[in-house]
Amino acid sequence: MANHASALKRMRQTQKRRARNRHYRSSMRTQIKKVRAAVEAGDHETASQELNAAVAVIQRLAGKKIIHPRNASRKVSRLYAAVNGLKASE
């Protein structure tokens, strides 16, 4: 357990940031699941709308350094590939 005031403050800040980052990551995962569900259902219209929302969330998190920029790029690329693959199969 920390004894210095600065260490206690650092612990409080870390806890707040961790909770906030977990919330953001959770919402990102939910958005990705919505895209995947639309692709599984074969609904291109819904999938493309959900894709736009998911990409916005992912890019925002990468900009805030909550996820690594390359991780964000990989996620976006795979989502686009899934949605475009759905379009090609129609």
Ordered list of secondary-structure elements with their pairings:
Layout: H1 5-41, H2 44-63, H3 69-89
Q: How is this structure best summarized?
A:
This protein has 90 residues and is an all-alpha fold. 87% of the residues lie in helices and 0% in strands.
Protein described:
- With 90 residues, the chain is mainly α.
- The chain has a single domain (5-89), classed as Methane Monooxygenase Hydroxylase, Chain G, domain 1 (Up-down Bundle).
- The protein has helices spanning 5-41, 44-63, 69-89.
- Helix 1 packs antiparallel against helix 2 (44-63), helix 1 packs parallel to helix 3 (69-89) and helix 2 runs antiparallel to helix 3.
- The radius of gyration is 18 Å and the shape is elongated.
- Please bin the fraction of helical residues: over 70%
Any idea of the CATH topology? Methane Monooxygenase Hydroxylase, Chain G, domain 1
Distance between the termini: 60 Å
What are the segments in which pLDDT stays under 50 over at least 5 consecutive residues? Answer: none
In N-to-C order, the SSE pattern is HHH
How much β-strand is present in the residues?
Answer: under 5%
Search tags:
single chain; 90 residues; Methane Monooxygenase Hydroxylase, Chain G, domain 1; 87% helix
